[in-house]
Write a structure and sequence with these properties.
It contains no helices and 11 strands. By secondary structure, it is an all-beta fold. Strands 2, 4, 5, 6, 9, 10 and 11 form a 7-stranded mixed β-sheet that branches. A 4-stranded antiparallel β-sheet has the order 1-3-8-7, with no helix packed on it.
Length: 115
Amino acid sequence: VQLVESGGGLVQPGGSLRLSCAASGFTFSSYVMSWYRQAPGKERELVARIISEGGGTNYADSVKGRFTISRDNVKTTVYLQMNSLKLEDTAVYYCNAWRIGRNYWGQGTQVTVSS
């Protein structure tokens, strides 16, 4: 099983980034896919979750209206489009795949929002 995140980097406040998580080694379409983040000194928190392609999403209140999660079951990839980035969005962002009895994590990608 592999979850490989990419797309992180340094961006100014108000900017945008698109994270990708390429999945392999499991039946991608059967899993709930999520993005979490962990800032220094803070606990890991859920950012966004997508149940299935084309529907069933949840967002943390802090990112609603700014972030969009999507998935492509053919490419076995989940995306996180992040717009209007704020300083407080700075964190390591992790991809997660979950189904009953299974829980997989990626290695994380750093997102730094700074002027």
